[in-house]
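Q: I'm writing a short methods note and want an example of a predicted protein-small molecule complex. Could you take the sequence and the SMILES for nicotinamide-adenine-dinucleotide and return the bound structure as C-alpha cells? Please keep the output block clean; save any remarks for afterwards.
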Amino acid sequence: MAQQVRGVIAPGRGEPVRIETIIVPDPGPGEAVVKVQACGVCHTDLHYKQGGINDDFPFLLGHEAAGIVESVGAGVTEVAPGDFVVLNWRAVCGQCRACTRGRPWYCFNTHNAKQKMTLEDGTELSPALGIGAFADKTLVAAGQCTKVDPAAKPEVAGLLGCGVMAGLGAAINTGNAQRGDSVAVIGCGGVGAAAVLGARLAGAAKIIAIDLDERKLATAQNLGATHTVHAKDTDVVKAVQELTGGFGADLVIDAVGLPATYEQAFYARDLAGTVVLVGVPTPEMKIELPLIDVFGRGGSLKSSWYGDCLPSRDFPMLIDLYLQGRLDLDAFVTETIDLDGIEAAFDKMHHGDVLRSVVIL
Ligand SMILES: NC(=O)c1ccc[n+]([C@@H]2O[C@H](COP(=O)([O-])OP(=O)(O)OC[C@H]3O[C@@H](n4cnc5c(N)ncnc54)[C@H](O)[C@@H]3O)[C@@H](O)[C@H]2O)c1
Ligand SMILES: [Zn+2]
Ligand SMILES: [Zn+2]
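A: Understood, no commentary inside the block.
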C-alpha cells in the first residue's frame, strides 16, 4: 500500500519551500523504502530551489541522509528491512565501461528508483539527486542504500551522503594525499572542512586552510589545519608559497569552484603538484590560463565527483573511523532542526553561519 508522509518540496524557481503530503509507493523490483532519521541541508538543495540545476519542478529536496530500511522490492539482496543505511546518490551499475574496467566510482550509469513519488493530486516529484530525503520516508534504488554500523548517530552518518564525503574524498581519493604532503584547501565550508579532515587522516604534514570567513578558518584549525590564510586582501598564491618553503603545496583543493579560486589553486601548487576541483562552477564560468604554464608546471589537474567515493567501500570504513574517535564528524553538525526549519537553514548557510544544519525526523 502506498503511504502518505510529510515531505519538503521546492514548488517553483526561487519560491519558498513548503511541507506537503507526499505519496510514497511500495518498493518495486530493485527498490527500497527508507524511513529517514536525519538529513543534512546541502548547498545543492538551495541550487535546486533556485532553479540552478534544472527546471524539473516540483523537487522533493534533501539528499544527505541516514535512516532505516522499511521495506524492499523483489530481487533486492544488498539490504533488508531494519538495516541502518546512509543514502548515496551514485548507485553503481556494475556493467558500464567504467564499472567493468574496475573503476566503479566513475560509473556512468548510476541508477535511482524507477517509480515516482507524487503529491496527493498525482503530480510527479523530482527527488533531489535521486534521493528526496526531507521526508519521513523516501523511495530509492536499493543500491543507493549503504549499510553502516548502527552505533553511529543518524545526523552524523547522513553527512557522508554528500558534502562531507565529497570533501574527504577530494583529499584522500581524488587528490591521493599522502603522509608528509603539504595540502592547501581553498574554501572551508562543509566540503572544504572535510577536505582538511581528509588531509589529516592521510597524514599530510602541512595543511593550509584558506577562506574569507574567520569562523571557517577557526573550525578548519580545530579539524587539523596547521596554518590558515584569510583570503580577503591577501595574495593567496604567495601566502601558500611562503608557507611551503617558496614552492607551493603538493596538493591544492578548490572547494569553492570559481575561476578566481581555480587560478589560485593552479598557481599555489608546487611543480608537478595536483589540483583538485570539488567546488561546482556554474555553466557560464570560464577560465583562461597560459597553455605554457599548464605544460610547464606539469602534474595533474583533476575534478572530484562525490569525492570519487565508492559508497560500499568508503561509508562503512569512515563510520568505523568515526566510532573509533579518529574522524571528528560531530564537528560538522552545527545544529539540528525540524522539517519546518529548512528555509531558515538556507539563510544561515548563505550567511556562512553553519557548516551543516541537519533535519531530524
Ligand atoms: N563535487 C561534488 O561532488 C560536490 C558535492 C557537494 C558539494 N559540492 C560543492 O562544493 C562547494 C562547497 O560546498 P559547501 O557545502 O562547503 O559550501 P559552503 O557555502 O558551506 O562553503 C563555501 C566556503 O567557501 C568560502 N569562500 C567563498 N568564496 C571564497 C574565496 N574567493 N576564497 C576563499 N574562500 C571562499 C566561503 O566563505 C565558505 O566558507 C559548492 O560549490 C558545492 O556545490 C561539490
Ligand atoms: Zn557502471
Ligand atoms: Zn549535497
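A: Remarks, as requested: The mean pLDDT is 96. The longest strand covers residues 31-40.
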